[in-house]
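Backbone-to-sequence.
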């Protein structure tokens, strides 16, 4: 029997879906659609998940292929045993919804939910900058800061499924206030909003910067603007120190950095690498730190990998096809 898997990455603004053909061993072109928000939980799930799954099933049915399982990447807190949504900050309408049970009942196949950072980590390991590494950390830096950890080829989720919350590690005493309520968290220092706020503070009195966005700050840094360079260099220093601490704690040798802030490229990454190398110089540790090779599609690829692993107890031999 020819079988396939479906992976879905659900974000606050977009949903991505892909299939993995188990017989041919390749990933389909990844479809990206805008998240349809109505404020009605079941309607949103129908329009943003079920309709996409049904369309994929019908398409694959024409090739006599049968759905074997569904993997879902979601930036939400959920109960790992039940798959019930506990809290999704992007959309409180889904809080309490029995997502796994609902989808398994509707499509009659196994469904696995995973945190978005964990899914992205597996995606990078399977087809991205972490390929070939059994010990890997994926760090995403955008509106928030998260981390997915893979140790000895195993995704580490922790006792409650919340492992890798490095955004809320205290970096400096009495630093800026974080949205978690504490002060000096990594997220409050290196997230996109934090960097933009810092740049505007440095430029206060030097013209109108109210409408400037972070990509423009990165361009200014590339052109030699001292304040823009300082913003990214300081962020890289904080991230580099955290990476060095993770290396000492878990002996991870490969790090992949993604998210919107990582799009600044070497302006950020050079500082990350230099700081980590300086802190590790006495310990003979070789650490690879790379920008994500998959950008915003690592989550959907990871979702495919997670459901494949769950059913087959091994990694898929994926071949990525990009349209």
């Amino acid at each position: 029997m020819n079988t396939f898997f479906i992976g879905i990455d659900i974000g606050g603004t977009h949903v991505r879906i892909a299939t993995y053909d188990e017989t041919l061993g390749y990933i389909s072109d990844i479809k990206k659609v805008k998240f349809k928000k109505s404020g009605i939980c079941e309607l949103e799930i129908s329009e943003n998940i079920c309709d996409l799954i049904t369309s994929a099933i019908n398409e694959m049915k024409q090739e006599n292929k049968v759905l074997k399982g569904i993997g879902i990447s979601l930036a939400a807190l959920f109960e790992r045993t039940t798959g019930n949504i506990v809290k999704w900050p992007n959309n409180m309408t889904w809080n309490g919804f029995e997502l796994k049970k609902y989808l398994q009942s509707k499509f009659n196949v196994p469904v696995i939910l995973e945190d978005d950072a964990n899914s992205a980590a597996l995606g990078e390991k399977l087809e991205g900058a972490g390929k070939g590494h059994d010990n890997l950390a994926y760090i995403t830096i955008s509106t928030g800061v998260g981390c997915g950890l893979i140790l000895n080829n195993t995704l580490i989720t922790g006792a409650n499924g919340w492992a890798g919350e490095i955004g809320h590690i205290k970096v400096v005493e009495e630093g800026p206030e974080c949205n978690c309520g504490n002060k000096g968290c990594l997220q409050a220092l290196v997230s996109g909003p934090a960097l933009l706020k810092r740049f505007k503070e440095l430029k206060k009195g030097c013209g109108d910067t109210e409408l400037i966005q972070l990509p423009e700050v990165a361009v200014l840094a590339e052109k030699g603007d001292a304040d823009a360079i300082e913003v990214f260099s300081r962020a890289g220093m904080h991230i580099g120190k955290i990476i060095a601490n993770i290396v000492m704690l878990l002996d991870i040798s490969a790090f992949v950095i993604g998210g919107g802030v990582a799009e600044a490229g070497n302006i950020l990454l050079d500082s990350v690498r230099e700081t980590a190398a300086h802190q590790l110089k006495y310990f003979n540790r070789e650490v690879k730190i790379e920008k994500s090779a998959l950008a915003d599609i690592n989550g959907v690829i990871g979702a495919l990998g997670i459901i494949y692993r769950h059913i087959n107890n091994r990694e898929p031999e994926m071949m990525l096809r990009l349209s």
